[in-house]
């Protein structure tokens, strides 16, 4: 019998990415096209189906070998039903993606949110390959994540498992309001947005920093100035890393992962940030829960979402 392949779709507000993976999580072939968001949900789903077929046609495989199609989608989803309940990025309300794609493609379809898909991608074919218990952090505009226990992606009762950006880690007297409406979420301090916010607040009260010469501060600037020795920037990066370490200490006694994987734009700051996170994690975590635990950078970059979506049939 010819070997099975899996098609993964990473649906974003600007682009649809598709990829073929083999059963070992190796990404073999990719394709990409713009997302026709303005044409509505049906047009977008139609475009996904076309891209999936074109991808397989242009590869050395044929359609019969496709054992399943998975899609990572930004928003709140009903994974069981395969519905997108609400997506700000796509402007969608109650879209039956699974049903539409299955009718079009004649293949079994699974969907999950984009953060979970990216986490599964890293766990399966990236920095967590071969490790059954993994937690992934994506440090970008927000803080996303995904939890894999015994090689299964954990979704929870209503799909909210792995929303680690909303673990309330900041004490009340320092907590600011999160985009979710609550106070003190990890995302308010450890995302790119959170770090820039802290930098702007420090400059506003007149603290002296090498950041003050910049017109528009980015999280990358904050890390670079911290590495160069600016005390204000270093303090901000330490706060961001400190709360990530604290959240990891919490997760260590909840799901006890062997490996934490750190990805996303902010993580490109590299070893400096990773070492700080590691130090804060070791300070906070129960000794027996941190023994043998590693904190490593993500390895798939922008392909994590496609690989994870393809893996939903095996591990979702
Ligand atoms: Zn929140």
From TrEMBL:
PROSITE patterns attached to this UniProt entry: ROK
Any one GO biological process: glycolytic process
InterPro entries per the UniProt record, alphabetical: ATPase_NBD, ROK, ROK_cs, ROK_glcA
Record EC number: 2.7.1.2
UniProt GO MF annotations: ATP binding; glucokinase activity
Domain of life: Bacteria
Signal sequence, start to end: none
GO cellular component terms given for this protein: cytoplasm
Pfam family name, one: ROK
Key words, A-Z: ATP-binding, Kinase, Nucleotide-binding, Transferase
Similarity section: Belongs to the ROK (NagC/XylR) family.
NCBIfam families in the cross-refs: ROK_glcA_fam
Protein name, UniProt field: Glucokinase
Organism in which the protein naturally occurs: Cohnella fermenti
